[in-house]
Design brief:
- 2 copies of one chain form a homodimer.
- The first copy, chain A, is an alpha+beta fold.
- Chain A has helices spanning 3-18, 23-37, 61-69, 77-83, 99-110, 140-168, 182-192, 197-203, 208-222, 227-236; strands at residues 41-47, 53-57, 89-90, 116-123, 129-136.
- A 5-stranded antiparallel β-sheet of chain A has the order 2-1-5-4-3, with helices on both faces.
- The model of chain A has no long low-confidence stretch (mean pLDDT 82).
- At the A-B interface, helix 6, helix 7 and helix 10 of A face helix 6, helix 7 and helix 10 of B.
- Chain B binds a DNA duplex (30 and 30 nucleotides) through helix 7 and helix 9.
- Chains A, B: One of its GO terms (biological process) is regulation of DNA-templated transcription.
Chain lengths: 242, 242
DNA sequence: TGCCGCCTCGCTATTTCTGGGGAGTAAGAA
DNA sequence: TTCTTACTCCCCAGAAATAGCGAGGCGGCA
């Protein structure tokens, strides 16, 4: 399958994907990419900032249901492994050594998932996390050839899926609440790096009480229930960096 | 500048980038891309998991020094804005309304940064954060044409920069410490969403003391000084998701 | 089989955090 | 100018977290 000859058709597919306005159209885009590349499966899975999971792709419904029912999310080395990475990864390079992982793999292959796979993780500022996966049944050599040949396309497609998924997410992004003041940011940062209030106040050269005012203020702005929650939210929203 | 005619040359540039093994070579790759696209500046900036900042690109040293000296990191709407996004963004769409931001913009243009810019944020699991930026001096229309025409290339290039930068990062990724047990993860998650220890214990249907054991254990594994610190670390390392 | 890690539970004492209250200055926005 | 917002400081009582001590059962691994 020559890249150049198919480039215009790929462009058309990507444009179709970019204009998708529903999960159903993401689904049909998955099918289109699967057919285009002649692979067994193309899947896009994402977790929005509320922690809700979505998925679309060419997997059999039976497999998807089984996956959820069996709690494979906590076993699947693809999910676990890619969550720690931020570049595309071949399934062969993941850790399949645990017993649960091997059982999962066997089950997956039995459901036609494919012995080869290539997944691209992308993450967002508010805990959004997406995984674009292509899987296939073939030899290591064939798969190597496929992934090296289409790696760049796949990254691009993953990005496009991601952008569409983001738009489908209900408007959480637009500044849910007021921004933190500089001092509030500093105070929250001190707490996030493990300092007690007294230490943090000392570090910022202010009284402990003043620091407390900042923390309380930040907590209020973040709609957090306590300091730990506030720090967690500030981190998740990218307001502070540790 | 036709895309098709230059595609092979672009491929060569990307391959050159992918083989880079030092910051210096990233630097020269920036120059190559700048010349290829005929824009004023190409810059790549990243923050590794230790919070250390790096940058390379075609900006003048004078401007870089001034940027750091003036603390523009905390003012620059590109940094602040892109940190909240996870898709490419045109500088025009950022919030330049604050006084500090306008002053910064004026200073930036005076140092030849360019009135137009396009930045692509990418982030990693352990707080790594990267920004690939192309900036230029031209009209809105010209810039619009450039960004729509080269958007996909730029995303790809950003990814490649990212991958190289990751490889340059000293090996922090490989499991700095033991992983958290499932119950520890659940316990930390409960705290991260704002529950008190008593509430969290209730939610997990265990005694408060048991929950406390998990939290302490997690805190120990994470090398954290207190609960808030532990939650912050667990979040930063992607061990829990809120 | 023995070891190790995980999960579960109880008690006590000390330190720290939380959540109310109020009050004044300085700087930037309307 | 007026008004808001950010920043700074103080007190107090009750709630929560921390740091020790202890125990036993279960399951995987060598």
């Amino acid at each position: 399958m020559g890249y150049l000859a198919n480039a215009p058709r790929l462009d058309a597919l990507i444009e179709g994907l970019e204009s998708a306005d529903s999960i159903e159209r993401l689904q049909s885009a998955s099918v289109a990419f699967r057919d285009f590349y002649g692979v067994n499966h193309v899947v896009y899975h994402w977790v929005n900032s509320a922690g809700e999971q979505y998925g679309c792709g060419t997997y059999d419904d039976v497999w998807v249901d089984r996956y959820l029912e069996k709690g494979y999310l906590r076993v699947d080395p693809v999910i676990q492994g890619c969550y720690q990475k931020f570049h595309p990864i071949d399934w062969k390079r993941l850790d399949w050594s645990s017993k649960a992982a091997r059982a999962f793999l066997q089950d997956a292959i039995a459901h036609g998932v494919g012995n080869q796979g290539f997944s691209i993780p992308i993450r967002g500022p508010n805990g959004q996390y997406a995984l674009f996966t292509v899987s296939h049944i073939c030899s290591d050599e064939e798969w190597e050839e496929f992934t090296t040949g289409h790696r760049r396309d796949l990254i691009l497609i993953a990005h496009c899926f991601n952008q569409v998924a983001l738009q489908l997410e209900p408007g959480r992004a637009p500044d849910q609440g007021q921004p933190l003041s500089p001092r509030e940011v500093e105070a929250m940062t001190m707490l996030a790096i493990g300092l007690s209030r007294a230490q943090a106040a000392d570090k910022l050269s202010i009284s402990e009480h003043t620091l407390r005012v900042y923390v309380e203020s930040a907590r209020f702005k973040l709609g957090a229930l306590n300091t730990t929650h506030a720090v967690a939210r500030a981190l998740s929203r990218g307001l502070i960096v540790v």
